[in-house]
Design goal:
The protein has 183 residues and is mostly helical. The chain has helices spanning 2-37, 43-52, 61-89, 94-122, 126-148, 158-181. Helix 1 packs across helix 2, helix 3 packs antiparallel against helix 6 (158-181) and helix 4 packs antiparallel against helix 5 (126-148). It is elongated, with a radius of gyration of 21 Å. The model is unreliable at 9-21 (pLDDT under 50).
Length: 183
C-alpha cells in the first residue's frame, strides 16, 4: 500500500500546483495582451494589480473588467483622501498648496466619473463608460502637469498619479478587448 500512496501524493501535488497557477496564467496572458496593445500599460503592474484582487482567481474577462473598475475607484478615492491629509498636515509652498487643492477637485470628479462609468457599463452603454474612464484617466495627468508648470515644484503625488493613470488604462483596454471579442 505504501508504494501506491507515494505515487499518488506527487501526482496530487502537481495537480494542485497546475490548478493554482491557471488563474494567474489567465491574468498574465490578458495583461500581456493589454501591454502589447497599449504602451501606457506595464505588464508587471497590470498582473500584480489584478492578481491582488480576491475575486480575480476565478474571474473571466468581464470579471477582470469589473475588478479593474473597482481598483480605479478605490485608487482615486484613496488618493483624494491622501491629498486631503497632505493639505491638513503639511506646510506647503503656496503654489504647491494650490496644486494640491486642484488635485483634490480633479480626484473628486474622478470618483464621480468612475461611478458613472460603472453604471453606464452595467447599463450596456460602453461608449459612455469609455468616455467616463477616459475622464478619470485625465485627472492624474492634469494633477501631475500642474506641478510641472512651475520650475522647481515637486509633486508629492507622482507615484499615485502614475498608478491611477495606469489602472484607468487597464480598465479602458479591458473594455476594448471585451468589445473586440464580442464582435
Amino acid at each position: 500500500m505504501r508504494p501506491f500512496s507515494s505515487f499518488i501524493l506527487p501526482i496530487l501535488m502537481i495537480m494542485v500546483t497546475i490548478q493554482s497557477t491557471q488563474p494567474h496564467n489567465f491574468i498574465n496572458s490578458t495583461c500581456r495582451k493589454l501591454a502589447q496593445d497599449d504602451p501606457n500599460i506595464n505588464f508587471d503592474f497590470c498582473a500584480t494589480s489584478l492578481q491582488a484582487a480576491p475575486a480575480s482567481r476565478c474571474a473571466t474577462l468581464r470579471g477582470l473588467r469589473r475588478i479593474s473598475f473597482h481598483l480605479v475607484r478605490d485608487n482615486v478615492t484613496d488618493t483624494r483622501c491622501y491629498i486631503r491629509h497632505l493639505l491638513a498636515k503639511g506646510k506647503w509652498d503656496p503654489y504647491v498648496k494650490q496644486c494640491l487643492r486642484d488635485c483634490v477637485e480633479l480626484f473628486s470628479d474622478a470618483i464621480s466619473d468612475v461611478k458613472e462609468a460603472t453604471k453606464s457599463y452595467n447599463g450596456n452603454r460602453s461608449d459612455d463608460a469609455n468616455v467616463r474612464i477616459s475622464a478619470v484617466m485625465d485627472a492624474p495627468t492634469t494633477c501631475e502637469d500642474g506641478f510641472m508648470d512651475r520650475q522647481g515644484a515637486v509633486s508629492p503625488l507622482t507615484k499615485r498619479n502614475n498608478d491611477a493613470f495606469q489602472l484607468s488604462a487597464i480598465a479602458l483596454s479591458l473594455m476594448s478587448l471585451i468589445e473586440m471579442e464580442s464582435k
